[in-house]
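Researcher: Next sequence.
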Amino acid sequence: QIDVALARNWTQLWSVGDNILPLSFHTVNNATDAALNLLLDVVTRSRLGTQSYGREGAITKLGLDRDRFFAQQEEVFAPLVAGLREGRSAAAVLDELREAIKALGARRPNRLSDEKEAAAEAQLARLAARLNQPTVVPGLTIFQAKGREWDRVGVVLSRAQVTTLASGLRELDEEHSIIYVAITRARRLCGKLTDGGAEDQEEADNQLPLNM
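Model: Next structure:
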């Protein structure tokens, strides 16, 4: 069991396994993104004891009154989380989420283009897949992890990044520096995460070096 999963971006974190709960979906670009972030916040605080990344920006984006929001967030969003957990469709929950934002005193987020609407529903589906997991591991971007350490870290690396690591890192290369930051966040063990979300730790070659 790892303590945290790290990746270059949020998309990678959502793709490695249902036992990884990232602290954000992606950058908040519109009101629907903001609403999704605040729904995720309910889950991350409940399961991980930490707020979603970008929560304050999401509150501002929606023009919510902070005091009213924090007083009513659990009451308004808890039924949506329960609906996802029980198998309610992502499309239905997304519509209910927009109504919830309206109930909190803000303008109801507009429907997005078909492509973006489908992406938002996919985000809810990925969140739903994590709600029935007995335990989840926090997922952070490498940027967020700077200056922090954990005992056991899982790192999501692309095939190109694995090749780069194997050939040696160069100090002044930005991409190399990002990989270096990721693998040096671990005090004891650093493993490469696979598409199944499990750490590759069965063979020494799959354990990433802690000291470069």
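Model: Residues 176 and 203 are 24 Å apart (CA to CA). Residues 196-205 have pLDDT under 50 and may be disordered.
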